[in-house]
Amino acid sequence: MRMTRRDWLWGATAGVGATLLPAGCSRRAVPAAAEPMARFPGKVPMRVVNDRPPCLETPWRSFREDFTPNDAFYVRWHLQAIPTTVDLASWRLRIDGAVDRPLELSMDDLKRLGSDEVVAVNQCSGNSRSLLTPRVSGAQWKNGAMGNARWGGVSLATLLRRAGIKADAVQVTFDGLDEGPLSSVPDFVKALSLDQALQHEVTVTYAMNNEPLPGLNGFPARLVVPGWYATYWVKALHRITVLPKVFDGYWMAKAYKLPSTPNGNEDPRHLAPDLVPISRLNVRSFFTTPDPSATTPAGRPCPLDGIAFDGGSGIRVVEVSADDGRTWVATELGNDLGRFSFRRWRLAWTPPAVGEYRLRVRATNREGQSQPDAAGWNRSGFMRNVVEELPVRVI
Ligand SMILES: Nc1nc2c(c(=O)[nH]1)N[C@H]1C(S)=C(S)[C@@H](COP(=O)(O)O)O[C@H]1N2
Ligand SMILES: [Mo]
To answer: Which CATH architecture has domain 284-394?
Structure first.
């Protein structure tokens, strides 16, 4: 990887949306408000949600592709000291704790142990947080804190079994190379139950869309937990520890917790007393074509296109309504790239008459779970999955 401290500081160029938006966006009927954009190493210009450490949002046009390009894939880090250069010759992945044979694996060792692949959506728990009312603190994402990729690596179960899991093992923790600015800032360490850690799709990855992981997305290796929120997808992974007890570090015991109600909802005036760690993605769907407020002629087909996903049961149906939810039409689903992947949908919608429309899109997964008509809320702004709307002007 060629990202050095200097690249990080000098490579990022700031600007505003108006000057950096690509030509394709001129089809927007309503120009985007000027937004802070920057180009970080290995990335296209992206909306800057935070700059130190970088939190960058995927440009919406990238969701017209099934696989989100690595150079447009969103970025989220919590701690200030992120690894800006990693020397592969000295990097090792340690597997220790309640195991019979602690391991120290080089990248070559890891690659020799397997080449498992999984297509999965990486979505931040706080994706869409900026749209909540009342507003909550935290990174103010719009809908672009997500992406779909083909992840390549070695199943975590293969690695743990090679190390030999002791009979008293309960949880497995994952630590990356990033650190806080002061020793008082808790290190970013996440934990999975042994059961979840041994699900065969949970993978220690070294490839993303058939390329090495971008530095900002966790080079040289990251954990991928398909179907679970990305907080567990620890980047720049260097240590896996099997524990004979439940891990009580800050990022499990205090952060990334939400009410145990469906979708983690609570009432802003009566906060829920009991919180649990966030886990599986709920079902969502989005429009990717046309752009918001696009114009289209009445009586002629207008191609609608979008994506849907859930926590791993797979998408059963995606429906669109052009009459405020009174009637719904099933869309045509695209190729099935796996139950953890984006599922593309499309519909040729023929607007009956001139006017302003607010189209709605709603997905249902194979367990029958769907999306609410009204947005839920919780104090952390996690798991938003309200039915999305798209304004369209029919002329
Ligand atoms: N080492 C490390 N891994 C991490 C984090 C982090 O701060 N440090 N953040 C997590 C969170 S909350 C998210 S949303 C995802 C973001 O993944 P991405 O930057 O590849 O999009 O990384 C996860 N893995
Ligand atoms: Mo996140």
So the answer is: Sandwich (2.60)
